[in-house]
Design a protein that fits this description.
Length: 162
């Protein structure tokens, strides 16, 4: 499918996009005000307080639920950089896969938010045992953000880079 919004041509890229030549950035840069605000927000989530492994597990499960090949492709790479194995990354797509309790909790957060738009009391209680208040807020916002981004990527038909 052709993109509904074409990425900016390279001669119009800002310094960030030149350093990160991905279609998600070159496409969203067509709305400069939102793009700059989104980069700050997305950057805050990527550089937040959550361990990188937890962050990437949550994003990958969200990408899986949303059917976002674009998010999956990019965050499978980032997941490997965060220490996830190829087997673990593929297991994110298997809802009945066995995981250590810490990983299972992160995946459960993404599952609960996908299926119910809320966390069960049991999931929330487990989050309270594992993360401080900042971490709990951040994990919920991370999953919500990547769900929103998947919708935008799909609707605008942003293509995965060659």
């Amino acid at each position: 499918m052709d993109p509904r919004v074409r990425p900016l041509p390279p001669e119009e890229w800002d310094d960030f996009t030149k350093a990160n030549p991905y279609n998600v950035f070159a496409t969203l840069a067509r709305h400069p005000g939102l793009y700059r605000a989104w980069l700050r927000f997305g950057g805050a989530l990527l550089d937040g307080t959550l361990p990188a492994r937890d962050r990437e597990l949550a994003i990958l499960r969200t990408a899986y639920h949303a059917g976002s090949a674009y998010e999956w492709a990019h965050h499978a790479r980032l997941g490997r950089e965060a220490g996830l194995t190829d087997v673990e990354i593929e297991s994110v797509r298997q809802l009945d896969a066995l995981w250590p309790v810490e990983d299972r909790l992160v995946l459960q957060v993404a599952d609960d938010l996908h299926y119910a738009g809320d966390l069960t009391d049991a999931t929330w209680a487990a989050l309270c045992d594992r993360y401080d208040e900042v971490g709990r807020i951040e994990l919920v916002m991370l999953v919500a953000h990547y769900g929103m981004l998947a919708l935008v990527l799909r609707t605008l038909r942003v293509e995965i880079e060659e």
